[in-house]
Amino acid sequence: MNARRIWGLMYRHLVLYRSSWPRLLETIYWPMVSMLVWGYTSRFFAARMGSPVSVAAGALLGGVILWEVCLRSQMGFSVTFLEEIWSRNLGHLFVSPLRPGEMLAAFSGFAILRMLLGVVPTALIAWALYSFNLFKMGPVVGLFVLALLFTGFAVALMVISLIMRHGAGAEAMAWSVMFGMAPLSAIYYPVAVLPHGVRWLALCLPSTHVFEAMRENLASGVIDWRQMAWAFGIDLIWLLVGMMLFIREFRLARISGMLVSIGE
Amino acid sequence: MPPPVPGHIENALSSAISVAHLTKSYAKTLAVDDISFDLPRGATLGLLGGNGAGKTTTIAMLLGLLLPTSGRIHVLGHDMIANRFPALARMNFSSPYVSLPFRLTVRQNLRVYGHLYNVPHADERIEQLVAELDMYGFVDRLAGQLSAGQKTRVALAKSLINRPELLLLDEPTASLDPDMGDMVRTWLENYRAASGCTILLASHNMAEVSRLCSDVVMLKQGRMVDRGSPAELMQRYDRADLEQVFLDIARDRLRAEDLGEGERL
Q: B119-123, long-range: CB within 8 Å, 24+ apart, which pairs?
């Protein structure tokens, strides 16, 4: 791993975003809109139904913010790869000394920056408008964020592997795949609400365990280490699967010639 | 398993490029069919052939973008199939058909590649290239706003950012007017003379190949059908220029040495 090469690729994307206000706006806009909608919804229910709902409202807002961590990190990673396809720059990157691992590290670094750009204003809105302080849960928030980042990266690795196999035609996966995961991730409700038949599936998602732990923390102030261990354990498996898929598809793309024609 | 090419191991270490029994097949297509050649360090080799002859596929394999179905590739002494990265750091590539990011300025693009190639004092190197390739007028413009000729010069500047020992050029003067094309060719000649760089050049411009290349490999339908210096090829086909040799090969006309007296078309 060479830090300068990683920075080189990150610099390319930083410059791109710095000079493109639509890209910056898109990064900030959706998380803020989501927070405004759910914030007023939760305020309405809390005002109507009293303090027991206030805890649920807090869980809802916490869910909105933390889900954005997962969603934005996945999208940030996948879209950074797609930017290279759209600009037809992959041919130059893959014949430079940039290792695939360094490319992934640069995508991860840039995805974190993109995620922060979307999530920090969202958390500030939650605090300013709805008096919800994400950090009142304590330092464990850092672990929640880390676990959800890993989930986002693992899904992104699978998405870009699919793009390497099927070309830019598979790019819609970059936006849609996480929305499919959302109902099973139990972001706004406990897993117990889900039908029996799909609970096992929900429990295979690392994000589900993070949101279960978050609700427990907001309700009782207790850190559910068991849920966090599940979250990180499943993340590890997902990341390994994502890496293996990426390595396999990268090699197949070098055999099929997809790396030369991936923009088409 | 193809038979070994005599002397391949020695050539692999001493040559800039050493290719042995290189074959690339897709499901229904044989894109490159058992080609072998060595390119000595400091030489300039022209890779000639019509559309679909296998030039781009060969270059993609030399760059490690594409894995061969069989055969071996050594570049600057490194096995490109087993570990291409040490060689990639010492070589570079330019093609007008591979873009640089449009939303970055020329300078920003060159800076990115300065980082990727770990170029010491990259900003100084960029200034040097801007001066040498006369890019002052557009170095701070977006790459997407450049004319085709300016883009070609930028692609060339990117390919020279790391002072490569081996330069793979795919139609380096395509889209350039004759004046600018001549400037680039002169610049390449000077760069080769000053640096000892090895150049592999794929081009459809026969005058360019005659001027720049000491050696030419002729490809047709994935096979290497002839090889020699431009002068040798012209003599072999009894032609006054390389373009006629190209047409003879493309149209399956026989070499002069294979013909009898008075049989030349």
A: B119/B161, B119/B162, B122/B161
**C-beta separation of B210 from B239 below 8 A:** no
Cα–Cα distance, A38 to A32 (Å, whole number)? 10
Question: CA angle A259-A260-A264, nearest 5°?
Answer: 95
Which residues form the domain of A228? 3-261
| Class of the CATH domain delimited by B1-90+203-265 | alpha beta
Q: Concatenate the DSSP letters of all residues of B101-118 into one string.
A: PTTSBHHHHHHHHHHHTT
ipTM exceeds 0.95: no
What are the angstrom distances between the C-alpha of A34 and each of A58, A241, B208? Answer: 15, 31, 60
> Chain A residue with minimal CA distance to B86?
A97
Burial of A21 by CB count in 10 Å (0-12 exposed, 13-18 middle, 19+ buried)? exposed
| Residues in contact with B132: Cβ distance below 8 Å, sequence separation at least 6, in sequence order | B187
| Phi, psi at A8, each rounded to 5° | -55, -45
Q: Which of B60, B104, B115 sits opposite A260 (nearest CB)?
A: B60
Of A19, A96, A260, the CB nearest to B116: A96
Question: Are the C-beta atoms of A81 and A249 separated by less than 8 Å?
Answer: no
Residues of A in contact with B95 (CB under 8 A): 91
- CB-based contact (8 Å) between A12 and chain B? yes
Residue A217 distance to chain B (closest CA, Å): 44
Check if the beta carbon of residue B216 is closer than 8 Å to that of residue B246: no
Q: How many distinct structural domains can be found in chain A?
A: 1
- Amino acid in the structure at residue A141: V
Instruction: Name B22's bridge partners.
Output: B35
Q: Which of A63, A55, A39, A52 is nearest to A221 (CA)?
A: A55
Residue A5 with chain B: CB contacts under 8 Å: 115-116, 118
Question: Which of A121, A123, A143, A144 is CA-nearest to residue A133?
Answer: A123
Mean pLDDT per 10-residue segment, chain A (264 residues) = 94 90 89 89 79 71 93 94 87 91 95 94 91 88 96 96 86 86 90 91 95 91 93 97 95 85 59
Nearest to A257 among B66, B88, B104 (CB): B66
Check CB contact of A32 with chain B, cutoff 8 Å: no
Domain range summary for chain B, segments of one domain joined by +: 1-90+203-265
Residues of B in contact with A92 (CB under 8 A): 93, 98, 100, 113, 158
